[in-house]
Amino acid sequence: MPKHHSAALGDDQRQRLAARLDGKRDELIALTQDLIRIPTVNPPGDAYLPCCEYLGNRLAARGFEVEYLRAKGALGDSDRYPRTNVIARKAGSGPGPCVHFNSHIDVVEPGHGWTMDPFAGELRDGRIYGRGSCDMKGGLAASIIAVEAILEEGLDFPGAIEISGTVDEESGGYAGVAWLAERGRFSPPRVDHVIIPEPLNKDCVCLGHRGVWWAEVTVNGRIAHGSMPFLGVSAIRGMAAFLAKVETELYPRLAQRRTAMPVIPEGARQSTLNFNGLHGGLPAPGPADGFPSALVADRCSLVLDRRFLIEESEEEVRREMLELLDAVKAERPEFDYALRDLWSMPPTMTDADAPVVQALSAEIERLFGAPAQHVASPGTYDQKHIVRIGSLKDCVAYGPGLLELAHQPDEYVGVDDMLDSAKIMATATLQLLRRAA
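The structure assignment produced for this chain is given below.
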């Protein structure tokens, strides 16, 4: 006969879980350090398989069924850099829902400016430093420790708990969560609730993110001798005219647009535009290359990163850019341009009354004595694929760490923050699994 499941999580069970997790502090530190020391840098996609196997071996030893799922043929996958994901599942004592913790294992390159080894996982003054410590191996470690505490305490639950380590979130997630979602791994009835432990503060529940539109503007000119530029058309001057119009007309408009989404930080509550890259004419010569040829630049390209609000549409955003380009052409008949879409994703927003939001919010308030903050991310993360491809709306980001530390030198995650988040993850998981019992 199936076991009886208590629908309510009692104070004694919360206290037992909290004490268990406090006792796993050193284990949490060691796990986080181990993960940081696996340099899963993307691009190109280093050490994905060793990281997945590390996670899989740990969870298999604790009774999880483990699968390794390579996204063969997906963007970025190759025999040299296989896009391997891991999913571990622990069944409860009877039928019920599934709570899934999804973390990406890839990290961006360290870059310059570090004062310590970015892959040493150094513990200093209650913080663990390293690339990916905040974004998001600290959150991954916290979710694992949270679930292990539930199992070690012998707390009964129906349904199942899943933990995944997925790849390529930093480059769009198409060989990770998107590929898995296309195969039903993030859809009911297999999965009912998803928590993504991204670093958005331990007292906040992240409901979603702004939209994004990446595009390339190319201005075409006419080549000529640099001593007679009047015989050519400078693509660089044409691009400069466009940039001037963006600066004087578009940026002021964007600054006036505000969203009702609770986006953090405050500066991201408005529409934003970033120029990701700009190149025109011949490449700059090296020290031994001599002077460049005397040519009028006949091509100039610009990659732009436009983040838009839930109150805007991608169609409106694109049309606005085209109108500026056409306005330049009206003023400069020789202006010739092309606009190419690179990538886009609409905003995502989970309802504040969704079960996963309510469960996490209630546990945050219990632990900290103040209501949880509901926030939204300025940039996208893998929730976009779970909602759009997996058609699973009960998905949020919740995890330890400070968003502004992501991708920075000397990135770190606080040990106390990880422990607090693990306590909330553990109790919220039990609440979600038992609510239907």
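Interim note for the steering committee: Confidence is low (pLDDT under 50) at residues 1-5. Residues 104 and 277 are 26 Å apart (CA to CA).
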